[in-house]
């Protein structure tokens, strides 16, 4: 029987991260909880939305970027993974990919009901992976869906990991170079609430095994979406696979190619050419 956690307001993510870190070593499970986290009657803060738009490259309008709704469900995701029944440590988990389906544009003045659950636990060659499913509704209408695949490194679950496959090449062409400042992680954390230490400061990033601060994967996706959003239909699905962390400060090169309304997106290191992210956008049929 599904257990439901209903949030009356957005939790303070710093406190939730701290709780998850403290209980991480005690988590020893192999099954996912039948758990849903919901928050109803959510009104969008217009100032917070405008600040997000500016950090991620969207125009400041009354329309809500598809990736901003992920920001609203992210606290629900963290709450679920910090719950005592969740089997794996949150600290050290890796966001492998994110798929968002926007069924229609959402207006910033609409009231939303948000829900998150987790499913599809399966092995990965570096541990275990599972999908966090997010939904946003206006009344009874499903307007937005989100699937975030997370890797829990070193965890063992039944089954055999899918064989590795070759990644496609990023779209070719000169693209556009984006210089990324050293404080980008802190600026995105301020508008998203994601205060994971690997994004905040070089010293805290080094404590988790990174050479310096890394950019949030969802900033990467948001910036890639912002580059093509004005050429997309109202309803679409955008998937981005996160490949190699983006260290900051740095310069990255974004490329995009469109065929019959479908887009292929790529983000690479502007100097070395190493691939940071690969994406696709498919219009709703």
Automatic annotation (TrEMBL):
GO molecular function: fatty acid synthase activity
Family matches, as Pfam families: MaoC_dehydratas (PF01575)
Residues covered by region (Disordered): 155-175
Coiled coil: none
Domain MaoC-like: residue ranges: 185-260
Name of this chain's protein: MaoC-like domain-containing protein
Source organism: Metallococcus carri
Family listed: Belongs to the enoyl-CoA hydratase/isomerase family.
Signal peptide positions on this chain: none
GO annotation, cellular component aspect: fatty acid synthase complex
An individual GO BP term: fatty acid biosynthetic process
């Amino acid at each position: 029987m599904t257990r439901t956690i209903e949030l009356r307001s957005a939790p303070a993510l710093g406190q939730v991260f701290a709780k998850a870190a403290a209980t991480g070593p005690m988590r020893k499970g192999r099954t996912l909880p039948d758990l849903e986290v919901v928050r109803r009657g959510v009104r969008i803060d217009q100032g917070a939305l405008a600040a997000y738009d500016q950090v991620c490259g969207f125009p400041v309008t009354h329309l809500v970027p598809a990736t901003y709704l992920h920001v609203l469900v992210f606290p629900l995701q963290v709450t679920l993974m910090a719950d005592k029944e969740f089997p794996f440590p949150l600290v050290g988990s890796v966001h492998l990919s994110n798929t968002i389906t926007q069924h229609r544009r959402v207006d910033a003045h609409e009231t939303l009901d948000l829900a998150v659950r987790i499913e599809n636990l399966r092995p990965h060659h570096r541990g275990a992976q599972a999908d966090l499913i997010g939904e946003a509704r206006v009344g009874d209408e499903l307007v937005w869906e989100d699937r975030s695949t997370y890797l829990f490194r070193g965890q063992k679950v039944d089954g055999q990991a899918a064989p590795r496959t070759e990644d496609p090449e990023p779209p070719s062409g000169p693209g556009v170079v984006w210089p990324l400042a050293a404080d980008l992680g802190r600026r995105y954390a301020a508008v998203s609430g994601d205060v994971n230490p690997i994004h905040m400061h070089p010293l805290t990033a080094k404590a988790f095994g990174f050479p310096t601060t890394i950019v949030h994967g969802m900033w990467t996706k948001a910036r890639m979406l912002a580059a093509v959003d004005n050429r997309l239909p109202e309803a679409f699905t955008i998937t981005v696979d996160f490949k190699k962390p983006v260290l900051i400060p740095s310069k990255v090169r974004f490329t995009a190619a469109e065929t019959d309304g479908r887009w292929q997106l790529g983000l690479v290191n502007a100097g070395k050419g190493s691939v940071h992210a690969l994406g696709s956008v498919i219009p709703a049929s």
